[in-house]
Design brief:
By secondary structure, the protein is mostly helical. The chain has one domain. It contains three helices and no strands. It has helices at residues 13-27, 35-56, 65-83. The longest helix has 22 residues, at 35-56. The termini are far apart.
Length: 90
């Protein structure tokens, strides 16, 4: 995932920030069963699938949704770990 919006099939800085924000809300939640946590995870999944369908798949046919999801989660985890208090927040 590149932060250059001009590169085809890559995500913008705003899209990466949205994914990271949502990821933090559900992955680092002290109560993973809370409604807000489940809603954030659902929104993360929907956004991820939309970005994959619109930007990644048309430009990188060899990348599966499963691979993209795994990479995106790892990328978000790395970003969150650099942002502030220890992750996950308990």
């Amino acid at each position: 995932m590149c932060e250059d919006p001009g590169a085809g099939g890559t995500l913008s800085a705003d899209e990466l920030a949205s994914l990271t924000r949502l990821f933090r809300q559900f992955e680092g939640a002290s109560d993973p069963l809370a409604i807000q946590c489940r809603e954030a995870e659902s929104e993360f999944t929907s956004l991820l699938e939309r970005l994959y369908t619109e930007k990644v798949k048309p430009n990188f046919e060899s990348v599966s949704l499963h691979q993209f999801r795994s990479y995106a989660r790892n990328y978000c985890r790395l970003r969150v770990s650099k942002e502030g208090p220890p992750f996950p927040s308990v």
